[in-house]
Design goal:
Layout (H helix, E strand, L loop, with lengths): L11 H6 L25 E5 L2 H11 L3 E5 L14 H7 L4 E4 L5 H10 L3 E3 L1 H22 L30 H18 L4 H25 L7 E4 L5 H7 L2 E4 L11 H14 L3 E4 L5 H11 L2 E4 L12 H15 L4
Parallel strand pairs: 1-2, 1-3, 3-4, 5-6, 7-8
The chain binds zinc ion.
Length: 332
């Protein structure tokens, strides 16, 4: 924390001056009392991937300077972290991350001994229910003659973020839970601005609960509930809104699906009458495309929200995802 922060009228200047920072600048750049960028915001916070960055921006407002630990637009699985970023971490007030998801970030946290706010307790508390739901959905799809080489999350081969599904932000109520943690973290580090963190945080929690309501209502009555995806990033969404996720490539988007798995998913698509396979940019799109062509179905985008492009934000992308689901699953 910088004790001269009261000199600064706004954090926008400091935010704009930070190279590589993807915080949007909609907060404006009106008169700052100090030209010293480092004194513009009370806290400097590192964020390990996009949904955590979004929460930090909304709760922190102008009182926090956000530094993204990996380049914007880079998908976080297997992401690298630069030596300069590791050095910068040593002066951050706190780092928002999810342990057992990005090995490079885990290592940098250990090296720097920086203070952290780990989202892992949310994964710990919910991933078992996600795995059970997935297993039930999968069994519902099972056909006896098939020898499944598709493994569940517990022993999925080749992924590197622990045994539990990390993608908790696909359930907005769980991102709201993390928002509560972030309010407490910022308030403890910067008590002078605690009321502002609380107010902005509660606004975000309201937005996330509204989004949850939109998903619940929007997916209440659909002709189909089977969700065929490339990268299995939607387990928490499937649990929250009672969908059955079947993925080509598993939890890790880097893993190439086996030909046997592709055939299996194609058979399931045909059996269940699905009209759509959902893909994101992270899975080998050609596999999904050729599967869709083979099965005579459409391809639609469902964004895992592990990174965003400029101008997008979590709420906007989630609303697009909801519309894609409502079309692809024929919801009324
Ligand atoms: Zn992922």
């Amino acid at each position: 924390m910088n004790l001269t922060r009261t000199m600064a009228v706004t954090g926008a200047i400091g935010t704009l001056l930070l190279a590589g920072c993807s915080t949007d600048a909609t907060s404006g750049s009106d008169t700052a009392a100090s030209g010293d960028a480092s004194s513009a915001a009370a806290l400097t916070v590192g964020t390990a991937f996009y949904p955590l960055q979004f929460v930090a921006e909304r709760v922190g407002g102008d009182d926090v300077t956000i530094e993204t630990l990996i380049s914007p637009g880079v998908e976080p699985h297997d992401s690298e972290i630069s030596p300069a970023t590791v050095r910068a971490m040593q002066t951050m007030d706190t780092v928002l991350y999810l342990s057992d998801f990005q090995p490079a970030i885990d290592a940098a946290v250990e090296t720097t001994e920086v203070r952290t706010l780990d989202a892992h307790h949310i994964v710990d508390e919910n991933s078992e229910a996600v795995a059970i739901h997935a297993e039930e959905a999968h069994e519902g799809h099972d056909h006896a003659e098939d020898d499944h080489d598709h493994e569940d999350a517990e022993d999925h081969d080749g992924h590197d973020h622990g045994s539990a599904d990390p993608h908790f932000w696909q359930d907005p109520t769980l991102l709201a839970e993390y928002t509560t943690d972030v309010i407490a973290e910022f308030s403890e580090l910067d008590p002078d601005n605690a009321a502002a963190y609380e107010e902005r945080g509660q606004e975000l929690i309201t937005d996330l609960n509204d989004l949850d309501t939109a998903f619940t209502e929007g997916l209440a009555t659909c002709e189909r509930r089977d969700l065929y995806v490339g990268h299995e990033a939607f387990g928490y969404m499937a649990l929250a809104y009672d969908l059955a996720q079947e993925g080509l490539s598993g939890i890790d988007p880097e893993a190439e699906p086996s030909p046997a798995r592709v055939r299996e998913v194609r058979d399931l698509v045909l059996e269940t009458g699905a009209t759509t396979i959902f893909t994101d940019s992270e899975v080998s799109a050609s596999v999904a495309d050729s599967l869709a062509e083979d099965a005579g179905v459409e391809v639609a985008v469902l964004d895992p929200l592990e990174s965003v492009v400029d101008g997008d934000d979590y709420l906007g992308v989630m609303n697009r995802n909801l519309e894609a689901l409502r079309t692809g699953l024929a919801c009324s």
